[in-house]
Amino acid sequence: MSAEASALPPRTETRRKRIRKRGLLSPGPSPLRNLLEEAKVELIPMKSLQRAVEELRPRSSISMTCSPAKSIEETLDQSAALLAAGHRVTPHISARMVRDHEHLVSIHQRLVALDLREIFVVGGDADPPGCYFDAIEFLEAFLSVDDANGDERRQVDHIGYTAYPDTHPLITTEQLHDALHLKQQLILATGRTAHVATQMCFSADQIRNWLRKERTSGLTVPVHLGVPGVIDKTKLMTMGIRLGVGTSLRYLSKNKRALGKLMTQRSFEPDMLLRPLERHLVELGVEGIHLYTFNQVDATEHWRERTLS
After folding, report:
1. CA 46 to CA 160: how far, in whole Å?
2. What's 39's DSSP letter?
3. pTM higher than 0.90 for the full model?
4. Cβ burial, residue 269 (10 Å; 0-12/13-18/19+)
């Protein structure tokens, strides 16, 4: 112990130890530190987007979503603007929002024009759907278009897709499991790389148990852990219900400690989920973090900077 530390009053030294213990990251390199540095920030094309963009760190890694209230073209327009500003961007392509084959070709042409090598494919909520009912139908068609001129001239090298540790309000667990593995098979069979990003889930135990089962069943692609950023608790609960994470919300209601912590704070902080998962990240093949910000970027970036420092 240093002379400075030994001179501290016992109460002060105890407080320092408590602060160190409470911190999310230990000093020095760690898998979680690297993941936080490179975490993708999800943005939504809505009125608050411009403010959110102004709050981004330079050269941020962005996941630009699709909204049924907008269009895929809007997502690609915003992606183009973010690229021009120096950010790295992965646009979401919503399968059910693709009108027909000609629309698919025009989307592909735009990806070529922007030189975007990575996309993230979701089924989407458009009702009624366009040409493709789900992400699997879209993937089969998209891969055919992208490979039309041969492997050496394909545009997209990497495709991300969704995973649901907390189930889905409209799709059975069995269907989710089958789709997860079929998408992996479709993408990897073409020589491309892939990853899955998990939908928002508040239970570390549920994420851990779900991923262990899927790994045992043959899921090999890297996982990007979907984590809510620092979000106002009212917005988090509202968006959580809309996104179909009812199981996790019920988990919170039964877990008095987690619920109590959330209810006594103005906002959710990612530490609540990341801390219990940190020592399992390598074992589970978690190679990325996907931050759901709902465009509340400033608070999330302050948390990230504070955590990394």
Report:
1. 23
2. P
3. no
4. buried
Dump the DSSP string for 208-235.
Answer: HHHHHHHHHTT--S-EEEEEE-SEEHHH
pLDDT digits (tens, 9 = 90+) for 38-65: 999 999 998 999 999 999 999 999 999 9
Q: Residue 26 corresponds to which tokens in the numbers above?
A: 């230990």
The pLDDT tens digits for 98-110 are: 999 999 999 999 9
Residue type at 287? Answer: E
CATH topology of domain 30-308: TIM Barrel (3.20.20)
Q: Which residues on neighbouring strands pair with residue 288, listed in sequence order? A: 224
| Residue 134 token pair | 């789900």
SS3 assignment, position 84: helix
CB 238 within 8 Å of CB 256: no
Query: Distance between alpha carbon 215 and the CA centroid of its chain, in Å?
Result: 19
Give the three-class secondary structure for 121: strand
Interatomic CA distance for residues 279 and 208, integer angstroms: 11
CA 166 → CA 169, 191, 193, 227, distances in Å?
9, 30, 25, 13
13 contacts: CB under 8 Å, gap ≥ 6: 5
First to last CA, the chain: 23
